[in-house]
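Sample A.
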Amino acid sequence: MAAAPHARLAAITCAVLAAPLSLLPGDLAIAQLAAHNRPWHVVTTLTAVTATGTGIAPYLVAATAGLTLARHPALARVPRAGVRRLAAVAACLAWLALGQTLRFTLMTLIARPRPPAETWLTHASRYAFPSGHATTSAMTVGLLILALARVRSPHRR
């Protein structure tokens, strides 16, 4: 079960690498169809999700996840609450930084071009795959879900 996301990423990466330096068949048509059929509520939602993967927002969420994880009973052995909080926040920020490093390395190696700019909802830079906004948002939400799941009381699990 845990290998499923890795297998999907590997399959998508293989598909992207099979068509180097060009868009995959159907990419342009799908991007144009999406660009011309965007209900306002979808645009608002997608813009908000994109914002969670941009700038300082993901780091604030990761720090919040760290503060939440600091309440976990396994960290109770750390005698000082300030040290416990700092260690948990640092671990979450380090995890996000590691993920960004891996994403950036993959992105640079794969070098998949972006679709035409007129289909974009927001500013984007560099290459298209793996998506920085999507990867960062997923990692950030994953940290927050992990933190909330780990600190739930045992009788609610």
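Sample B, a different protein:
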Amino acid sequence: MGIMFSAFVVIALILSVYLGVEAGGLHVLFGVIIPYAAFVTFLLGVILRVLKWAKSPVPFRIPTTCGQQKSLDWIEPNKLDNPTTKAGVVGRMALEVLLFRSLFRNTKSELHDHNGPKLAYGWEKWLWLAGLAFHWSFFFVVVRHLRFFLDPVPGFILAIEGIDGFFQVGLQGIQLTGLILLAAVTFLFFRRVALPQVKYISLPADYIPLFLIMGIAGTGIMMRYFVREDVAAVKELTMGLVTFSPTVPDGISSIFYIHMFLVAVLFAYFPFSKLMHAGGVFMSPTRNMVNNNRAERHVNPWNYPVKVHTYEEYENDYRKVMKATGIPVDKEDDDEDKSAG
């Protein structure tokens, strides 16, 4: 149900752009108005989401750990899995963000019925590899596309584009990151569909981003290798958006507007979806905090003063009753009288 609904939504978006451009002449709507609206939605949505996270109270250190905490000098701590310094937190976060360290160490469990039920654990390196390929290829595709929004184009972008397209077939350079992106997102989709336990918990919120990214990568590959787009006209359109002097030149095909519209939808959808884990990982108190609970005492800073009844006061009030029932007391009546005298 979730797959069909998500696919229908994305196909409906694609058809709406095609019909709007080809039959309705809505080039300004899909080339100017919607991209601006999507960017504003993305920017405001991310800011509001981050501010909401920043306001969440975290009075205590609650990092998720899986290694030995620093304690006695003769016990060696795990400085990455259980960081007690800011340098350890930075190292742990860097490995998590750049290399997906926790996903690399992930395992899957299966129950096999061979000579009786047996629980077996297996590696999940294909998931780690696909996730790493997807995120890094997506990053480099975005960086490469900055050449459409900058004039002159910085040298590092040209260098990345040159390295990405070093593989040539005939006269046509193959941009590897675009193909890797499509292959990785397709693998992640089929994995979500093929594994029953993953499919069972999947929702349209899981499938829609996958279909959107498939559509973006697919239309991008079509424009590069099959439907030759007027790059000069596209550059004029994008530079007009950046300089706030929008113009819609002639010669841009409907497939480009489909590509651009899907990107705009993904941008607008980003702050309100699970894709915000890209920013949430930096705001997670289970990852960004030093675990020094044994070295320092952390007190809730907004605890209000509470009137308490100490044991000494309790004993003074009920000493005779306590002694009559055989309950031991810390101070006898004589000690109390002497202290009073």
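Observation for Sample B: The radius of gyration is 30 Å.
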